[in-house]
Write a structure and sequence with these properties.
25 strands, about 650 residues
């Protein structure tokens, strides 16, 4: 979280610096700047909420986190649009402009029909009104002729290339290469066309019919003018689908919309359709050629159903995020020659899928985050295929947040027959695991599904886990059973007058004290050994004795130094049956409660004496070393 806060403020500062290095539209810049500052402030506030122990902090955390995520998405979209052009982050509309206008070669005019569409698609995002990098505007012929900060982009001699085309031939890693490495690159035929246009005198109105066509330019022009935007061609080739069929598809719960007003090609969404079946695809197949976008995210899509993808040969966008597909389904993409975007976020794809995807030349964007593909594999793919990059955010960009420890709810840690413990995580989606043997819980431990029934002495340790988050700290609670109630109990030493509680009965009332030693449930003893004499109802063997004590070093309260247990038929003939010695606490300012369990080996006798040894003096590390120390006890439990 600290790293996110620091990086957000660094981004704000760098953004304020970068605004002086380029020209941006005022409205976009101001909104982007203000949202960036809002995100930085919000992340700082979110950190405060994650640390506060107030009940309202946990209630506000998730809404604040969700709102901050929305701010981040909008801010990133604006930043991407400012830097890379509209639609960079969200992909824009499906109906995009291709490199050249669809026109018969003999009727085409060189600049408006062939050159300008290339500049618009590959250059104008950075060189346009409102954003003129290098003071160069390529959005019109007049601004192109005007040039930029380095003067004219055209050659000084007719047989040489000027700045405009010389830079597109530089190595991709060269800082002067245009378009920049992270932008949509010019294809070989597009470079050939620009070179030829400039060498031919870069005219504005000349037609192809008036030009001399020789060498590579002839084939390049044929390929370019034949590369018509398929959506434009399909608009002419297909009729609108029948309303009856649309109604049938919508009755299945699917959404169907045209790509634009009165366009025959369709966008179909079956997002979240868990019961997706072959019959659904058979219905869609009837007009499968007219479906260009198919959203199957979070549905029942799997490798078997992927066999139906061939029914949609004109598919441009496919979304199978958070489905059960694997590498096997990717092989079916070979039947989709026009596929531009694939979203397989949070699926089981591995690095092997990249071998198939690299043979899909039509692809322009891949979304493969949260798969089994390693980040190093995605980075290598992007380097080798700059025109079809995998869109993902490196893990180090936003470190995982840590879940809060689960909340444990129970009535009393001391019981006679049974008690129950309920656990609740901050997020409902989180899985909770627990142990009752004092071991650390992990994802192999028992999964919590309902309140835990406790019938014996136990320490329950609980952890929460959620995909995309670090596991929570461990929360724990100790429970002790009191199966035997003493007939009589008396103190061996009198408590201090300020901490009398209810006398000896305080130790057998099954009410554990709080961490506040002044709550009236504790017996406090200053610089004196103490203990109790107990008379049992029957002469029965004991298996264990548990003592509950308090440690609060800042209040000079320490756990017992030792505990001794004596037992016998008569109080005059008691025998030592157990003795435990404990090390002094290490330096700390924390207030802690602890159950001290004393196992017994089945000795009999109605009379018990439990001696509790005080440390008498504060330890050497204490700020008041050598001063009188205290022992506080609140319960003695017999089993």
């Amino acid at each position: 979280m600290i790293a996110v806060i620091l990086s957000s403020w660094l981004s704000v500062i760098s953004g304020l610096i970068l605004i002086d290095q380029g020209s941006y539209e005022a409205d976009s810049y101001l909104l982007h700047r203000n949202l960036g500052i809002a995100f930085a402030l919000g992340s700082s506030a979110l950190y405060f909420l994650s640390k506060t122990t107030k009940p309202w902090g946990a209630k506000l955390y998730l809404p604040a986190y969700s709102l901050l995520t929305i701010v981040l998405i909008i801010t990133g979209h604006l930043g991407g649009s400012m830097t890379h052009g509209d639609g960079f982050l969200l992909g824009g509309s499906t109906e995009t402009t291709t490199s050249v206008t669809s026109v018969a070669l003999e009727e085409a005019k060189l600049y408006p029909d062939l050159v300008k569409p290339i500049l618009d698609a590959k250059c104008v995002t950075c060189h346009r009104p409102g954003k003129t990098k290098g003071e160069l505007d390529l959005s019109s012929f007049n601004s192109l002729v005007k040039g930029g900060e380095h003067g004219s982009v055209f050659p000084s001699a007719i047989d040489s290339l000027g700045t405009l085309t010389s830079r597109i031939h530089l190595n991709l890693d060269d800082k002067l290469h245009m378009p920049p490495k992270n932008k949509n690159q010019l294809q070989a035929d597009e470079k050939t066309l620009l070179d030829w246009w400039i060498k031919s005198g870069y005219c504005e109105d000349c037609s192809i019919a008036s030009m001399s066509l020789e060498g590579p330019i002839t084939d390049a022009l044929k390929r370019l003018t034949g590369n018509e935007d398929p959506l434009k061609r399909w608009r002419r080739e297909y009729d609108r689908v029948p309303e009856k069929w649309l109604a049938q598809v919508r009755d299945r719960g699917f959404k169907v919309t045209p790509v634009s007003s009165n366009h025959p090609m369709l966008i179909v969404s079956a997002k979240g359709a868990k019961q997706l079946a072959s019959s659904d695809f058979k219905l869609l197949k009837k007009y499968g050629e007219q479906i260009v976008e198919l959203d199957l995210a979070q549905s029942g899509m799997n490798d078997e159903l992927a066999a139906h993808l061939g029914d949609f040969p004109n598919l441009l966008t496919l979304d199978v995020a958070q489905t059960a597909i694997s590498d096997k389904a990717v092989s079916k993409l070979s039947t989709l020659p026009f596929l531009k975007a694939l979203n397989a976020y949070d699926t089981k794809l591995t690095g092997a899928a990249l071998a198939e995807l690299q043979h899909r030349p039509s692809l322009e964007a891949l979304y493969l985050a949260q798969t089994e593909i390693k980040e190093a594999e995605m980075a290598a793919f992007n380097k080798a295929h700059p025109n079809a990059p995998i869109r993902y955010i490196a893990s180090e960009t936003f470190p995982k947040s840590t879940l809060a420890a689960p909340t444990l709810e129970f009535d009393n840690p001391i019981f006679t027959q049974e008690t129950k413990l309920a656990a609740r995580a901050t997020f409902k989606e989180a899985a909770i695991y627990y142990t009752i043997d004092q071991s650390d819980p992990d994802s192999t431990s028992t999964l919590y599904t309902e309140p835990i029934s406790i019938t014996q002495n136990a320490t329950v340790r609980v952890i929460a886990r959620l995909k995309g988050w670090n596991a929570s700290p461990i929360a724990e609670a100790s429970f002790r059973k009191a199966a035997i109630t003493p007939k009589e109990i008396s103190l061996l030493a009198k408590p201090h007058r300020e901490y009398l509680g209810d006398g000896a009965t305080t130790l057998i009332d099954l009410k554990r004290g709080s961490k506040d030693h002044k709550d009236g449930r504790w017996l406090g003893f200053e610089a004196v050994h103490t203990g109790v004499d107990i008379v049992l109802e029957n002469d029965q063997p004991l298996t264990s004795i548990t003592l509950s004590a308090l440690s609060a070093p800042n209040s000079w309260i320490f756990f017992p130094a030792a505990i001794e247990v004596y037992q016998g038929e008569r109080v005059e003939q008691l025998e030592l049956v157990h003795r435990a010695v404990y090390e002094v606490e290490k330096p700390t300012s924390e207030v802690t409660q602890r159950f001290f369990d004393l196992p017994l080996s089945g000795h009999s006798g109605k009379h018990l004496r439990i001696v509790i040894k005080s440390r008498m003096k504060n330890p050497d590390w204490h700020a008041s070393a050598g001063s009188n120390s205290w022992v506080f006890i609140d319960e003695i439990l017999l089993n």
